[in-house]
Amino acid sequence: MSEQQTTTEEKVLNKEELNEQVAENEEVETASEEIDPLNEALAKIQDLEAQLEEAAKKEQDILLRTRAEIDNIRRRTEADVEKAHKFGLEKFAKEILNVIDNLERAAATPNNSEDESVKALFDGVELTLKDLISTVAKFGIEPVGAVGETFNPDLHQAISMQPTEGFTTNQITTVLQKGYLLNGRVIRPAMVMIAA
């Protein structure tokens, strides 16, 4: 074979090798082009999954806060209803205390009369007073402030302090007006005099 044929064959072979190399390079470029969109798609999927997880956490947080708020509203409402049941009579109780005070004053009036009708009237006032006190007690109204009790500023209102024999300091010596509680809440403090 001649050199020219060999050179031509080498050129053909070189061309074929070049074509193969170009084809390989194109495949590599195509593969790398295919890999880049795949990587981008994977990155986007991961980003979307992270956003989805964050949204799920926010939704869970909102759900928990809403449930807690509903529970708080329910508890407050129950407490308000309970207070309404317990203390709904407070205004009425304050008004009825004046009637009790008047009946106690009438019952405390000395009965020097021998007249039977006057005695019956006093007995009727005492019975009415006892019945009224037992009725209001059924609804949670109870008196406070008795002679000999220790002074309590939450329950009693001190009008004066006087040294008194037979009583220790801060002990109630005289009750000027009874105080009353409605289910444990003071609706009127007792006006008292205490020992100094």
TrEMBL record:
The record's Pfam families line, in alphabetical order, gives: GrpE
Any single GO molecular-function term of the entry would be:
unfolded protein binding
Protein name per Swiss-Prot or TrEMBL: Protein GrpE
GO cellular component assignments: cytosol
Q: Which HAMAP family match?
A: GrpE (MF_01151)
Swiss-Prot/TrEMBL GO biological process terms: protein folding
The source's superkingdom equals: Bacteria
Query: What PANTHER family does the record point to?
Result: GRPE PROTEIN (PTHR21237), GRPE PROTEIN HOMOLOG, MITOCHONDRIAL (PTHR21237:SF23)
Q: Where in the cell is it found?
A: Cytoplasm
InterPro entries linked? GrpE, GrpE_CC, GrpE_head
Q: What are the Acidic residues biased-composition ranges?
A: 23-36
Q: Major place of localization?
A: cytoplasm
Q: Which UniProt keywords apply?
A: Chaperone, Cytoplasm, Stress response
Q: How does it assemble?
A: Homodimer.
Region (Disordered) spans which residues? 1-36
Q: Its function?
A: Participates actively in the response to hyperosmotic and heat shock by preventing the aggregation of stress-denatured proteins, in association with DnaK and GrpE. It is the nucleotide exchange factor for DnaK and may function as a thermosensor. Unfolded proteins bind initially to DnaJ; upon interaction with the DnaJ-bound protein, DnaK hydrolyzes its bound ATP, resulting in the formation of a stable complex. GrpE releases ADP from DnaK; ATP binding to DnaK triggers the release of the substrate protein, thus completing the reaction cycle.
Q: Cite the record's Basic and acidic residues compositional bias ranges.
A: 8-18
Q: What is the lineage of its organism?
A: Bacteria, Pseudomonadati, Pseudomonadota, Gammaproteobacteria, Pasteurellales
Matching entries from Gene3D superfamilies are given as: 3.90.20.20, Head domain of nucleotide exchange factor GrpE
Family classification: Belongs to the GrpE family.
